[in-house]
Amino acid sequence: MNQPYIQVEHVSKRFGAQQVLDDMNFTVRRGEIVGLLGPNGSGKTTMIRLLNGVILPDRGTIRVGTHNPALDGDPIRRQSGILTEGAGLYHELSGLENLKFFAKLHGVQDKQRLLDLLEQFDLTAHMHKLVGTYSTGMKKRLGLAKALIHRPELLFLDEPTNGLDPEGIQLVMKYIRDLNRAEGTTILLCSHVLHTIEEVCHAYIFMENGRVLEQGTNREIEDKYVTETILRVETGLVPTGEMFAGVPVQRVGSQSLQFTLPNKAAITPLLQAILRESWVHEAVITNRDLEALYFKVRRESHE
Ligand SMILES: Nc1ncnc2c1ncn2[C@@H]1O[C@H](COP(=O)(O)OP(=O)(O)OP(=O)(O)O)[C@@H](O)[C@H]1O
């Protein structure tokens, strides 16, 4: 557990004149689900391709398990599964035929495994249809099934919920969480849908312009960046000034107030003071979710 499973040190990569990755450093522990987050073009997919040994770094070293993907990519590709944007499926084959093809590549003989995956991703009714006729969401779910055929110990998921409807997103996210819990699969997940991945990730790597801005668990990043607690309270309270019970307050809706507190410990006395005067239907911290943290880290890195 002490030694990280993935270690990226001083990795740079250039395509032509464009410096796509610039001195990247991060680690991933075995069994973690880590979100690799960053704006379009920040280099997330390139990083995944380097980790897989599909392309080589110009500088720096990468270790995945005991292997260096630049020198020794085959064992990494054997023990990992990857879902890319296009999913790499054959459109002129059926869903089942696609899985059979990739099962053969991985030396997987167990046909029941393929049927179980089709079932888990809600594709049983469509397994004999050509993948070319599948919807975007169905292709994405089949792409995930394909990535999982050989029970990989490491999964790279590039935008796993892109193109999925809310039900599909829930199904995929639940599968990812259950898989990680049941088999301890290490998962590196790129996504833009921050509120969705927040439910499954143990830690995050925030990227921008090919650099790591920050890395850590939600709690670690929160402790470092968030100095105050913004609490939105649905209440009938009508404060008479800009302070209530010693706390700065702002009206943000007809029955909604926003309080700026020094820390979480100040929430209970504030709510007690409000309840002495009025009702409270809801109280939500609005500046500690992943999206708020993400924007805060990015803002501070520009200052
Ligand atoms: N093979 C390549 N040749 C030239 N440029 C490339 C190549 N692959 C990626 N790039 C460039 O590198 C930059 C980073 O691309 P990458 O796909 O890694 O970003 P990303 O963070 O995954 O973006 P997105 O969120 O849009 O998927 C982009 O400007 C892209 O055009």
Q: So what's the overall shape?
A: globular
State the helicity in percent bands: 25-40%
Q: What's the total number of strands?
A: 14
Can you summarize the main beta sheet? 6 strands, mixed
What number of domains? Answer: 2
| Ligands bound to this protein structure | adenosine-5'-triphosphate
Sheet with the most strands: spatial strand order? 5-6-7-3-8-9
At CATH level 3, the topology of the largest domain is Rossmann fold
Which value, in Å, is the CA radius of gyration? 23 Å
Average pLDDT taken over every residue = 90
Distance between the termini: 36 Å
Q: SSE order, as H and E?
A: EEEHEHEHHHEHEHEEHEEEEHEH
Q: Look at the helices and sheets and give the structural class.
A: alpha/beta
Pfam families: ABC_tran
Family: Belongs to the ABC transporter superfamily.
GO molecular function, one term: ATP hydrolysis activity
InterPro entries: AAA+_ATPase, ABC_transporter-like_ATP-bd, ABC_transporter_ATP-binding, P-loop_NTPase
